[in-house]
Amino acid sequence: MKILVPVKRVIDYNAKPRIKPDGSAVDLANVKMSINPFDEISVEEAVRLKEKGVASEVVVVSVGPAKSVETLRTALAMGADRAIHIQTDEAVEPLGVAKILKSIADDEKPALVILGKQAIDDDSNQTGQMLAALMGRPQGTFASVVNVDGEHVLVTREIDGGLETLRLALPAIITADLRLNEPRYASLPNIMKAKSKPLVTKTPADLDVDVTPRLATLKVAEPPMRSAGIKVADVDALVAKLKDMGVA
């Protein structure tokens, strides 16, 4: 079977984001970018399914500017077979991404679409659910274990009461949690091989998808600084302080 894995180019999780002076957006100039960590987990899971003989092909897709090709090459170096780049310099909202992925999925006809549960830049946690709704496919979100069983896939996910296992008929949509796996490091030989793997570039217009934003960002600001704590000598002093604060 074929697996489709969407990946997103985001600010590296080790980098500290900076706000533009006018407060309009996050400043991306001279900032290290990398593959979204949750998407990296999705790629790893798809490659593992291929190594087990469950999947025959892993296709990665990214929506974003020209530099998103670097993200796709990283996924190819991890073991994906080919890539599709939907090039646009506009910010694409989750619904627009879901519509693009639906168009690609209608053409590629994957048995599984494995997405990261969210992107660390906007934390929307919407694209996978929207894609499942648009395609009318079963979904298993926040997956911590994935097992393909014939024409079905078993997805274990964490819930408030413990663990829940869903049995989904293929084709299906899955979003990956951090506990699903630990992504591998791409080796130098695989990085070199990735440069020759197929990569097709299209635009949203080629897919007849309108990605006009429906939301407007009014302001971007850094979170307020935490105030310093107060040390007390003993429990009596703590209780007295709480009473002064009106807590106790």
C-alpha Rg (nearest Å): 21 Å
Beta-strand content bin = 25-35%
Largest sheet geometry: 9 strands, mixed
**What is the CATH C-level name?**
Alpha Beta
**Which residue ranges are poorly predicted, with pLDDT under 50 across at least 5 consecutive positions?**
none
Overall residue-averaged pLDDT value: 93
Number of helices: 6
Strand adjacency order, main sheet: 11-10-9-12-8-1-6-7-13
Report on this structure.
There is one protein chain. It is built from 6 helices and 13 strands. It has helices spanning 37-51, 68-78, 94-108, 127-135, 188-194, 235-244; strands spanning 2-6, 9-11, 18-19, 26-27, 33-35, 57-64, 82-87, 112-116, 139-149, 152-159, 162-169, 172-176, 199-202. The mean pLDDT is 93. Helix 2 packs across helix 5 (188-194) and helix 3 packs across helix 4. With 248 residues, it is α/β, with parallel strands linked by helices. It has a single domain, classed as Rossmann fold (3-Layer(aba) Sandwich).
